[in-house]
């Protein structure tokens, strides 16, 4: 893998064909207004333990839509109650949840943003205390409202309860839950679906030999470990038809000997593309603890670039991308087709407006009520 995390030199970029951060991009005919996207981020802000998104989600996502982001991907949204990380997660397994999401989606559309939803099943990382607002970590016991976590094998995530290994019927249920969630998401108005196959959640647990020791057709060889994800991609594509873009978020590596690798990620991305996926959001890690993650600005960009070049697919890069020039260089260098930012959008929901001003790009989607706040031209 080449190291472009520090990004290409200005000279090389001057010669590169000019794709810029603020160029639109088309996914199955859905035109996203730019390539500066919001990464999925759990808020743990459901009020009633019912998976229904709240006014917090409306304001949180709405601010970033007003702030000029292109695609906004919701937090990991559970396809079933047992697929939640915590009981404060959003879900999309009921009509009530879908109706609540549709209000949010309408608002994002009103601001010109493209609305994506990350469909997720936490697997063995389910039934945990929320990441904020709880004094405890790890698995919530049944007497305090927890549920038995599920996984490919009875191998616990370090510090968590041992999961129940899914049997054949359980795997069919998981696939059906992703399909029903996809149907509800499209009915709620989402333009784009993203399958969460990263960060040690259920689909990643099947992909990685560190969490999957099955001896049936869902374990062992790469083909077998990828089978659940590919079944979900195929089934979701069959359900939603040909017009809805389908993204897959991968962890590009487990950073561990004997774990999931970037080469495997590229192979499975290619197969997933044949099965009906369109675009790959490449992150890393999350399936085990105690590994060294080489954090630095743009540290996951080389993983995205490797998947793009090896599988010949479109990708986004994510992780410690925090400035306009850094984001623009990643796209302009051709390392990735788009960038997703997480924490920078939390710090500044209007980061896209700011980035455009810094890059000297005129936007025709400044929100009308904010027009008097445009940055003066230098
Ligand atoms: C508060 C928070 C919640 C997150 N929740 C999710 C999530 O629901 N799904 C997911 O795939 N990644 C999640 N992530 C990871 C982000 O999508 C992103 O990959 C990561 O923060 C690195 O990008 P950044 O350096 O721009 O923040 C979360 C990150 C943060 C900070």
Task: Explain the overall architecture.
By secondary structure, the chain is α/β, with parallel strands linked by helices. It has a single domain (10-369), classed as TIM Barrel (Alpha-Beta Barrel), CATH 3.20.20.70. The protein has helices at residues 10-15, 55-66, 95-110, 168-187, 202-207, 222-240, 262-275, 301-311, 324-332, 343-347, 351-359; strands at residues 25-27, 30-32, 36-38, 71-78, 114-120, 150-151, 164-165, 192-197, 246-251, 279-283, 314-318, 338-341. The protein has an 8-stranded parallel sheet with strand order 3-12-11-10-9-8-5-4. A two-stranded antiparallel ribbon has the order 1-2. α7 links the parallel β9 (246-251) and β10 (279-283). α4 (168-187) runs parallel beside α6 (222-240). The longest helix has 20 residues, at 168-187. The radius of gyration is 20 Å and the shape is globular.
Topology (elements, then pairings):
Blueprint: H1 10-15, E1 25-27, E2 30-32, E3 36-38, H2 55-66, E4 71-78, H3 95-110, E5 114-120, E6 150-151, E7 164-165, H4 168-187, E8 192-197, H5 202-207, H6 222-240, E9 246-251, H7 262-275, E10 279-283, H8 301-311, E11 314-318, H9 324-332, E12 338-341, H10 343-347, H11 351-359
Parallel strand pairs: 3-12, 4-5, 5-8, 6-7, 8-9, 9-10, 10-11, 11-12
Antiparallel strand pairs: 1-2
Helix pairs in contact: 2-3, 4-6, 6-7, 7-8
The protein binds flavin mononucleotide.
Flavin mononucleotide (FMN) binds at residues 39-42, 75-76, 118, 196, 198-199, 249, 283, 318-321, 341-344.
